[in-house]
Write a structure and sequence with these properties.
The structure is a single chain. The protein is about 20% helix and about 35% strand. It has three domains: about 40-150, Nuclear Transport Factor 2, Chain: A; about 155-250, Nuclear Transport Factor 2, Chain: A, CATH 3.10.450; about 270-385, Glucose Permease (Domain IIA) (Distorted Sandwich). The radius of gyration is 32 Å and the shape is globular. It has about 425 residues and is an alpha+beta fold. Strands 12, 15, 16, 17, 18, 19, 20, 21, 22 and 23 form a ten-stranded antiparallel beta sheet that branches. Strands 1-2-3-4-5-6 form a six-stranded antiparallel beta sheet, with helices on one face.
Length: about 425
């Protein structure tokens, strides 16, 4: 009995000794390998296969940046541990594939780094200029090579027929119509419709537009509108897209262009806050004729050129604050007051197109709050933008009209197929 107990005690003591040794080795091993994972990175891989002769651990990390105002691709590279020679090599390698100086705000840049013995080495940089493109810059044997991948996209036509509730924007947004399609829809009819006064609940919208998906069915981008119709209380307007060798425009069912000389409302999503005519000036305190119309909107709301022309004046203009005046054809001019800032590239004598963003709503000058003061000048006299008689666009004739009518019928057939 005594021998049996002695054997049990020896076994227990041996087991305790093994546990103590294992614990000591574990602590000692962890003390020797102390790898700090950088913040704002994602550990994406662990691999021992390339380090067969040592206990070095091999990690890959993914970091990403999104360009904000003032950022450039080069300034982003300087935030990494790439040296000047490496950055220069990288810029030379990528310059023939992408215009790095034209990357937009919001562009995503990913960096994949290897971490070996706390030394971090960038192995790949990925730029996503848009949802279609992927630019991969790979480091291979201390040199950079560039690969450009473009997704294969599949076209799909989408048709909606809805009633307006509250606003055109919210009604279309509720059925997941993309913002750029909504903006295009509004611009198409901004030559004929005063969106602050003419739109009512239960008015109807028909719209046919194109969108593109990838092989997995994910929506990548939207294309253009092929057909748009708006049915008001008393009137209705419909437009078809028509393209030939010289232009892409929208025409009504008879082939008459939607484009007019000037827009009545060169801003979207705004409220008419002060009409044309006599009023008591909110700051000066006395009655004065209001020679334009005011559209209340949040600071930063884009303002569009009401028509094609060139910038005649840009700069501070007394009580108008930051101000732009555009000279159009046929004796027309338009002016835009109280801006917060001007759009990129807008300066004196620059030619602008109808619908192009020229500036942003602000409250500069004599202003009690953010709004756009919009004026139309015809042959030197200020006129009421809401009541002006706008010259009509062109009317298709001959072979162009025949081609348009064929395209119109094709579009109507597409709508019938989708509805059925």
């Amino acid at each position: 009995m005594y021998l049996l107990n002695k054997k049990i005690l020896v076994f227990i003591a041996g087991l305790i000794l093994i546990i103590v040794i294992a614990y000591y080795l574990s602590v000692s091993f962890n003390d020797k390998i102390d790898i700090q994972i950088p913040k704002e990175t994602t550990l994406i891989q662990e691999d021992h296969s390339e380090k067969k002769d040592s206990l070095d651990l091999f990690f890959s990390f993914l970091e990403y940046y999104e360009l904000v105002e003032g950022d450039t691709f080069i300034s982003t590279l300087k935030k990494t541990n790439l040296n000047k020679r490496e950055i220069d090599q990288l810029i030379i390698a990528v310059k023939d594939v992408i215009e790095i100086n034209q990357l937009r705000i919001g562009t995503r840049i990913e960096m994949i780094s290897d971490l070996i013995k706390e030394e971090r080495i960038i192995k790949e940089i990925i730029i996503y200029p848009d949802r279609e493109e992927k630019i991969s810059i790979l480091r291979i044997d201390d040199r950079f090579t560039v690969r450009k991948d473009i997704k294969t996209l599949y076209s799909e036509l989408v048709f909606h027929e809805i009633e307006i509730e509250k606003s055109i924007y919210s009604s279309l947004k509720n059925i997941n119509v993309p913002d750029n399609i909504i903006m295009s829809f509004v611009q198409l009819f901004s030559f004929d419709i005063d969106f602050q006064r003419d739109i009512r609940n239960k008015n109807k919208i028909n719209i046919l537009f194109e969108q593109f998906k990838d092989k997995d069915g994910e929506l990548i981008k939207s294309g253009s509108i092929f057909f748009a119709k708006i049915i008001l209380t008393k009137d209705s307007y419909e437009l078809y897209k028509f393209e030939n060798d010289n232009y892409i425009e929208y025409f009504n069912s008879d082939g008459k262009s939607a484009t007019k000389a000037l827009m009545k409302t060169p801003i979207n999503g705004a409220r008419l806050s002060s009409a044309y005519g006599m009023r008591k000036h909110p700051i000066l305190g006395y009655n004065k004729k209001h020679m334009g119309v005011d559209f209340a909107a949040p600071i930063g709301t884009p303002i569009m050129a009401a028509g094609t022309g060139h910038i005649e004046y840009i700069g501070t203009n007394g009580g108008a604050g930051k101000y732009i005046r555009i000279k159009h054809l046929n004796g027309y001019k338009t002016s835009y007051s109280h801006l917060s800032s001007y759009a990129s590239g807008i300066q004196k004598n620059v030619r602008v197109k109808q619908g192009q963003t020229i500036g942003y709503v602000g409250s500069t000058g004599l202003s009690t709050g953010p709004h756009l003061h919009y004026e139309v000048i015809f042959n030197g006299n200020k006129i009421n933008p809401m009541k002006m008689k706008l010259p009509s666009g062109k009317k298709l004739k001959g072979i162009n009209l025949n081609n348009f009518l064929t395209e119109r019928d094709r579009i109507n057939n597409e709508i019938s197929k989708i509805k059925n």
